[in-house]
Automatic annotation (TrEMBL):
This is Redox-regulated ATPase YchF. GO terms for cellular component: cytoplasm. One of its GO terms (molecular function) is GTP binding. CDD domains: TGS_YchF_OLA1, YchF. The lineage of its organism: Bacteria, Candidatus Colwelliibacteriota. PROSITE patterns: G_OBG (PS51710). Pfam families: MMR_HSR1, YchF-GTPase_C. It comes from Candidatus Colwellbacteria bacterium CG10_big_fil_rev_8_21_14_0_10_41_28. InterPro entries: ATPase_YchF/OLA1, Beta-grasp_dom_sf, G_OBG, GTP-bd, P-loop_NTPase, TGS-like, TGS-like_dom_sf, YchF_C.
Length: 336
């Protein structure tokens, strides 16, 4: 099951709980989503997609199951979290499990809501959280580099190469860079990807307040790191649909569909994923046992009015293992 897991991070009192509470009101009924253990700090939220409704109507489906996002409410981090301040170690470990970080930064000024640092400074808070993530990653890297040094002394060329890659990551973090900025050439190496570094994860910055309260220096700092940001007044409108779609976009995710009388369902796949991988998302056995896929693009299926008519018009294609799934593809997977 491929799902998008998002960790909500930030300092205390920046609006994380407001966001999480708004999200959990949109929660998917747990019975429709057997893959998740629903903890108090996990909200399983459907991805807004009107295509799902139209397909369910077209197939007269008994059930309709959207693609989903899991949001993890990670308790407020504080300066020193990497050393365990404010239960920091526990919460930093939770972040390691997610695929993308929604980083909530407070820009609103409100006398009744105290700030942990005593003043409102979005850039300072943004840098505080990222510094904590860097320090925690450095702690993990130091241990892994020690091991790699011992392994490289055996004369194994691949172990020496691993050490070189790890030292490149460490050098970047020492300079205050996030691992995210190193690109896939480094992050894609197995020795790095298996560490699941906190600073390697994409971040979507949610600026809690009004556009007029966002300083240019904060916008510049976010853009320099290659992150997207959105401004939302969480007290009035959590802009949930926009947030979920932005999280999708940040991870280069697409939605494909399966539909029939029993169920219409949206599934999540990384852009560029091939037909067997889509099969694996539906059921783990389908990837290895994949034979072929019947494919109709959503628009064409709706225009035809039924799978049979789409076939008659020649809009249904038979695709093999090399086919790259497109957003909106409706599939029937054939497997051995």
């Amino acid at each position: 099951m491929s799902k998008l897991s998002v960790g909500i991070v930030g300092l205390p009192n920046v609006g994380k709980s407001t966001l999480f509470n708004a999200l959990t009101k949109q929660q998917v009924v747990a019975a429709n989503y057997p893959f998740a253990t629903i903890d108090p700090n996990v909200g399983v939220v459907s991805v807004p997609d009107e295509r799902l409704d139209k397909l369910a109507e077209l197939s007269s489906s008994e059930n309709k199951i959207p693609a989903v996002v899991e949001f993890y409410d990670i308790a407020g981090l504080v300066k020193g979290a990497n050393k365990g301040e404010g239960l920091g170690n526990q919460f930093l470990a939770h972040i390691r499990e997610v695929k993308i970080i929604v980083h909530v930064v407070r820009v609103f000024k409100l006398d009744g809501v105290i700030h942990v640092e005593g003043s409102i400074d979005g850039l300072r808070d943004f840098e505080t959280i990222n510094t904590e993530l860097i320090l925690k990653d450095m702690e993990l890297l130091d241990k892994r580099i020690d091991r790699a040094m011992k392994e490289s002394k055996t004369g194994d060329k691949s172990k020496k190469e691993e050490l070189t890659v790890l030292e490149k990551v460490k050098a970047a973090l020492d300079e205050g860079q996030l691992a995210h900025t190193l690109g896939e050439e480094i992050l894609g190496k197995e020795v790095v990807s298996e560490l699941s570094l906190l600073t390697s994860k994409p971040q979507l910055i949610l600026l809690n307040g009004d556009e007029s309260e966002v300083g240019d220096n904060l916008k510049k700092a976010i853009e320099e790191l290659g992150f997207q940001y959105m401004v939302a007044d969480l007290g009035q409108d959590a802009s949930l649909g926009r947030l979920i779609k932005s999280a999708y976009k940040s991870l280069d995710l697409i939605t494909f569909f399966t539909t029939g009388p029993k169920e219409t369902r949206g599934w999540t796949l990384r852009e560029g994923g091939r037909a067997p991988q889509a099969g694996g998302v539906i059921h783990s056995d389908f990837e290895d046992k994949f034979i072929r896929a019947e494919v109709v693009l959503y628009d064409k299926l709706v225009e035809a009015g039924s799978w049979v008519k789409a076939k008659e018009k020649g809009w249904m294609r038979i695709e093999g293992k090399q086919y790259v799934i497109q957003d909106g593809d409706v599939l029937i997977i054939h497997h051995s």
